[in-house]
Specification:
heterotrimer, A mainly beta, B alpha/beta, C alpha/beta, A: three-stranded antiparallel beta sheet, globular, B: seven-stranded mixed beta sheet, about 20% strand, binds thiamine diphosphate, binds iron/sulfur cluster, binds magnesium ion
């Protein structure tokens, strides 16, 4: 179920304010995105990529006020260029 | 304001002739660090470049100088430095980078007595093997050696032409005596001087592979800022210029870097032969020593000894085919040089089994006289 | 829980990919390494300032950071250890219209290449130099660097470092650099702005980027996890723009002082002086 690209497949996850993309095969499980997410909506998943690294997953809990605010910090801090956020234009 | 090409007759020191030769060849970037007996070249360029629009930088050391030349050449400029033994030693690592990245540059080494600080103001020819093997690894390089100011002028131009053609660092291996002796130098009219420019890519950027060679084993060279977005490295690399540190990639690359020179030996190697037709004894010499060597051959001929002279203008790659050919005819190769046996080893290797070889060594400091060489020729002829 | 929709059949690339040699990803750097985010900040600064790709030149020396020049889709030169600055000077003086950047390691720029660094500051050559300071020789497996804090362990200071380390912003400032800043690879937004600010200036501009090396530095200094050093930076950093560079020495138990420290305007570059001289000589 992965999107194809000429480079590496990426996975898109829709969030309330946009979309998060993860190129799983680039991730090296450093957890920086998780640590630095201001709303703490990312966590280590059980899913490992080919190299055995567990890629992050999104866990929004709107009832507790934990939603991705599309700040893009995960994108700029990720050492692997593995995760990025597409903020919804209309917001 | 003076022009770039000073067509006419001049009375120049060898070092000045080199600087003017470089300007004629189109050199517009010079990076260097002062050292005896080469400083006059940098000094002269520092006067001339502002007149003609070139970039002169006196760097903090020779390490910086050669690195800057490589960068300048990648920006498209013909680049040169001048130095002597201690500085030449410091440059070795980046000569290797020039070989690996295939960058045209010209290095003038005005040799002085060595090892170490040695004889700063006196002549020698001790850096011959260092010129070939000074940087780590197996590589081929080009080195030319002049014996007079006029030849220094001519060969400097040829150094640039060879560097541009073969994309390789080229060394003008001269010496204190040539640098500091004055002589007549004729500068031809600008349009009579043949200049070679590096091959440029003929394909659009998306199809360009920076290390894909043509038939002649030389890849066309894009320069920085031309839109080719290429990458280059001193690491073993593939045709894209990407690091590929496998044994296979290394074999392929290092072979090509050597073969692009070896395969063009006839184009690169230049020798001057005199009285060789019937010679039994050949005096093999280069640079300043070729002058007394030729005189000695003349003296021997007057004595009825069948001596001839082979003057190596190209030192590296070695003129192995030339020595090999004459080895079938002559009995003896006599090799006078200002070191303890360097080119002698090459001659001996090529002559092995066919002719004998004799070294006339001098450690440097003063020239070998024609009489000294003549005496050895005579001894050999009596054997 | 969240709604997870996974897109199919769509070409998906990270925004940096238009600057990357994507076919070379993933890169060689270890999990949590600070080099990646630093390069991305630099790329965003290029975009922000609007410098077209074909004008960008990236020169690096040898080391982990040195590998960066081969990953970006610009003219990239991976030179020799310590010689990136003089290489870049030669290139820039011949093609002054290009945006020439040196991005290299602390060992590369301040140990083997230290002499070139101070002389380039002094001459005010027009270069942007970014140092990824990871306090260690990363590539060769964690030996002592001239930036290793006192007391820290490395493979060649197994009992703790006894050598004082360089305060590199102070060194740059004292040597005449026109722009001097220090950020970390987690202060990526400020870093991006600082790089952009530097890009809009002329002359020798220097930005030190404190950069986690979890593998060669962290493991030996009680910061073993990929995110430990980042955490240290987050907790210990204070921002003091305009700080006196003599007061920003890095000491392990003290706060890390970050900021845009020096901005000198009006100092002529080497190239400008050379052109002036040329005019004078030609007008004679
Ligand atoms: C002349 C020379 N000496 C030594 C080396 C080995 N060497 C390679 S990288 C390196 C240190 C790199 O440290 P740094 O510049 O801090 O870069 P990092 O790997 O930490 O990014 C050394 C010593 C070399 N390549 N060349
Ligand atoms: S964009 Fe911001 S809020 Fe959303 S996951 Fe990334 S870091 Fe968290
Ligand atoms: S920051 Fe990047 S590499 Fe690290 S865990 Fe997150 S996605 Fe993976
Ligand atoms: S050794 Fe250190 S500097 Fe090198 S890639 Fe790994 S984390 Fe980065
Ligand atoms: Mg380092």
């Amino acid at each position: 179920m992965q999107a194809s690209s000429k480079v590496l497949p990426s996975q898109r996850v829709k969030v309330s304010r946009g979309e998060i993309h993860v190129i799983k095969e680039r991730c090296k499980q450093c957890n920086l995105c998780i640590d630095f997410c201001p709303t703490q909506v990312l966590r280590e998943s059980d899913e490992a990529n080919e190299k055995g690294y567990h890629v992050p997953e999104l866990v929004e809990e709107p009832e507790k006020g934990n939603t991705c605010v599309a700040c893009g910090f995960c994108q700029v801090i990720c050492p692997e260029y593995a995760i990025w956020i597409e903020a919804r234009r209309d917001e | 304001m003076r022009k770039a090409v000073l067509t006419g007759k001049h009375f120049w020191y060898g070092n000045i002739a080199i600087a003017e030769g470089a300007i004629v060849a189109g050199c517009r970037f010079f990076a260097g660090y002062p050292i005896t007996p080469a400083s006059e070249i940098a000094e002269h360029i520092s006067r001339r470049f502002p007149e003609i629009g070139g970039t002169f930088v006196q760097f903090e050391d020779e390490l910086a100088s050669i690195a800057a030349m490589l960068g300048a050449s990648w920006a498209g400029a013909k680049s040169m430095t001048s130095t002597s033994g201690p500085g030449f030693s410091l440059m070795q690592e980046n000569i290797g980078l020039g070989v690996m990245m295939e960058v045209p540059i010209v290095i003038v080494n005005v040799q002085r007595g060595a090892p170490s600080t040695g004889l700063p103001t006196l002549t020698a020819q001790g850096d011959v093997m260092q010129t070939k093997w000074g940087s780590h690894g197996s590589y081929e390089i080009i080195a030319l050696s002049p014996d007079s100011p006029q030849e220094a002028f001519n060969l400097t131009i040829r150094c640039f032409n060879l560097a541009e053609k073969y994309r390789v660092p080229v060394i003008l291996l001269t010496s204190e005596t040539v640098g500091h002796s004055a002589g007549k130098v004729v500068v031809p009219p600008k349009d009579k001087i043949e200049l070679v420019q590096r091959k440029k890519p003929k394909v659009p950027p998306e199809d360009y592979l920076p290390y894909k060679p043509d038939e002649d084993l030389i890849p066309p060279m894009a320069c920085a800022g031309e839109g080719y977005a290429f990458t280059t490295t001193g690491l073993t690399h593939d045709e894209k210029g990407y690091p590929d540190t496998t044994a296979e990639a290394h074999e392929k690359l290092v072979r090509r870097l050597n073969d692009k020179i070896r395969r063009h030996l006839k184009d690169i190697v230049d020798v001057e032969e005199e009285n060789m037709e019937d010679a039994d004894i050949a005096v093999v010499s280069y640079g300043q020593v070729s002058r007394p060597a030729r005189k000695a051959v003349g003296m021997a001929r007057e004595d009825g000894i069948k001596a001839g002279s082979i003057k190596l203008i190209t030192i590296w790659p070695f003129a192995e085919h030339v020595i090999h050919r004459w080895a079938k005819q002559v009995e003896y190769f006599v090799v006078p040089e200002l070191n303890y046996g360097q080119i002698y080893l090459e001659v001996k290797r090529e002559a092995a089994g066919e002719a004998k070889s004799l070294l006339i060594p001098r450690m440097g400091g003063k020239l070998i006289t024609p009489t000294e060489i003549y005496r050895e020729i005579k001894k050999v002829s009596e054997k | 829980m969240n709604e997870q929709t996974i897109a199919e059949d769509k070409l998906e690339l990270h925004p940096i990919d238009k600057w990357l040699r994507s076919e070379r990803m993933p890169h060689i750097w270890c999990p949590g390494c600070g080099i990646g985010p630093t390069l991305y900040a630099w790329i965003r600064a290029l975009d922000r300032v609007g410098i077209p790709k074909e004008k960008v030149v990236y020169v690096s020396g040898i080391g982990c950071c040195g590998r960066g020049s081969g990953y970006l889709d610009v003219d990239g030169f991976h030179t020799t250890h310590g010689r990136a600055i003089p290489f870049a000077i030669g290139l820039k003086l011949v093609k002054p219209e290009l945006c020439v950047n040196v991005i290299s390691g602390d060992g590369d720029l301040f140990s083997i290449g230290g002499n070139h660094f101070i002389h380039a500051c002094r001459r005010n050559v027009d270069l942007l130099v970014i140092c990824t300071n990871n306090f260690i020789y990363g590539m060769t497996g964690g030996q002592l660097a001239p930036t290793t804090p006192l007391g820290d362990r490395s493979t060649t200071s197994p009992y703790g470092n006894i050598e004082p380390s360089f305060n590199t912003p102070h060194l740059a400032d004292a040597s005449g650099a026109v722009y001097v800043a220090r950020w970390t690879s987690i202060h990526v937004r400020r870093l991006e702005k600082s790089i952009a600010e530097a890009m809009e200036m002329k002359g020798f501009r220097y930005i030190e980027v404190l950069s986690p090396c979890p593998v060669s530095y962290g493991r030996r200094n009680k910061l073993p996890e990929p995110d430990d050093i980042a955490e240290w930076f987050r907790q210990s950093s204070i921002i003091r723009n305009g700080a006196n560079t003599s007061e920003v020495q890095i000491e392990k138990e003290k706060p890390l002082i970050l900021g845009n420290f020096v901005k000198r305007v009006g100092k002529p570059t080497f190239y400008e002086l050379m052109k002036k001289l040329e005019e004078k000589v030609r007008g004679r």
